[in-house]
């Protein structure tokens, strides 16, 4: 007789052969998002913590896009055949569409969060086919988007900006906002990080030497913005500008460099300590989309119940920064796959629902 529905992955699931660096980096990105989104609940705070909060806010989205690119490259590599790779591309296009719709839905929940999911969905759909390019071609595309992104954003803002500020919103105005015009995120600035993540997979996330190289690039990249502002008197670098992208590069490469260096440490005791440090980041990173949706729901509930943007509420801050990750870790430990990850997997065809059956009084073997 018919039994309960179960989910069978269509693509191979990564278990022991998971890559540590993108898993941990994804967890760092989601924690950075949580801290940044909780910031409006600690309006009165020391300048040092406000500065740290700002850096975490800046690193979260490009780091998350980097891990998405790495994940796409891993799945495409495991697909093997051209036919299987085309299936992965189609699945990621569907996943991207679901993320766009989910982002639109979350924007109606009354939170103060600038929702990034629609932007990431488009990046996933556009970026996955590009991952199949050869290394030189992929580097060329990444460089072209980096060079052309900032002036293209400015050109499109001058030409079409009123479409997102005047009159009724249309699908075209939303698309222009996601691609070029948003003051928070833009596909033109997130796509290079997606492609960079795919390139990191090609060197298997590098190890110690790559970690030191990334750190050597990260430090001057991060400092160039403050030095430029000090020399020119400019107060800030506009979001999406070359200096802003360089600042993001300093943060993202610094985080990845530290993770690579820690992951390359040897010795039984040292490795055990590193593993213990990495484990909570792996946990929340593995259900990052579910945790993102959950925190938007929590913030929306707070905003609707008198906990307002720009207040100082340490308890509410702790709920977001400590409580939400703990919920995520417990879910990962006792349940496993996040519900949003499961739903998107089913909708995209990566996971297939089937019916298990029983024969007589015993189970089918």
Descriptive notes:
- By secondary structure, this protein is mainly alpha-helical.
- The chain has one domain (2-363).
- It is built from 14 helices and 3 strands.
- The protein has helices at residues 20-38, 47-79, 82-106, 117-130, 135-160, 162-165, 171-181, 187-202, 208-232, 242-263, 268-286, 288-304, 314-334, 339-348; strands at 2-9, 351-359, 362-363.
- The chain has a 3-stranded antiparallel sheet with strand order 1-2-3.
- Strand 2 and strand 3 form a beta hairpin.
- Helix 1 (20-38) packs across helix 10, helix 1 packs across helix 11 and helix 2 (47-79) packs parallel to helix 4.
- The longest helix is centred in the first third of the chain and has 33 residues, at 47-79.
- The two termini are 14 Å apart.
- 39% of the residues are buried.
Sum this structure up briefly:
This is DUF418 domain-containing protein. The protein contains 14 helices and three strands.
